[in-house]
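Complex record, two chains
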Amino acid sequence: MPSHPLLECINKRRSIRKYTEEPVEYADILMLIESGIMAPSGSNIQPWKFIVVDDPQILKMIISFSPGVNGNPPCLLVLCSDQELANKKGGKLGSEYLALMDICMAAENIMLAATDNGLGTCAVKSFESSIVQRILNLPEHIHPELMISIGHSSKDVAAPRRRPLEEVVFHNVWKA
Amino acid sequence: MPSHPLLECINKRRSIRKYTEEPVEYADILMLIESGIMAPSGSNIQPWKFIVVDDPQILKMIISFSPGVNGNPPCLLVLCSDQELANKKGGKLGSEYLALMDICMAAENIMLAATDNGLGTCAVKSFESSIVQRILNLPEHIHPELMISIGHSSKDVAAPRRRPLEEVVFHNVWKA
């Protein structure tokens, strides 16, 4: 018998694009990241860095270069790849793909843990990565790959529409 | 107060590299994929296809071109990007990055749901993608991006070592 809390959490997660003004605690964000780093990491390289941004000025600057961030979140988590580490241990494949893949799996854990804690999130891929890198004074080899906005949702959001399984699942053979 | 089942599941997940001969039910795999497709998808494009491989002959062929698959899993889930769909709706960025990111977030849901159901998994990135594509008769625009081996673990696996938070988390500013 599956336990239901996991599935409930997976099904309850929404992409939140409107936040209240209530701040989020830094300690709570750290808890979310603790869940994030339990995601699998290819060859256990863990080429991830997490920048928690809740300083209003920095937040404002980043948001102005991030068309994908909506609804004034009180916090942005910027998930970065450590290209030096990824390349050293995983070569070109490591720095071009594997680091990003690890980060995305960690991101999903973080968004689920946030949902579980009553926090809303939205994964954001649309931002000026090189400008964000400069705003945060990141070294050359630390690349912002994905952001997660985090805060308290200001309204209920309907479940996203999903293509039915019949359209996306195949059993041993492809059928056009 | 966070509910603990989610965190327990996140912390209990291991990368399994040795499986028993016990088969997995196709219906159970479908349940896992149902959790997978609840992951966020950029612009809700859902450029994912899931090929469930449990036919012993096909499995054997794929495994012989997949150095990352270990321990004779009774099932491989091949997560593919639909490059045509991703490109049509997300352009170059969509097909080169966003599809992969969606797939990885879905993969983490699938691995957590499997853990919750007593199944072991391992995310595998090391395989000959273009050969797997041909073995499965996939059209040109369907690219295998990631595999998940699925089965019953034949032994307990220790928790992976993780870099401490102090090493990977930064608060508003980068500190070398």
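Note: Helices of chain B lie at 4-12, 26-36, 56-64, 83-116, 129-135, 165-168.
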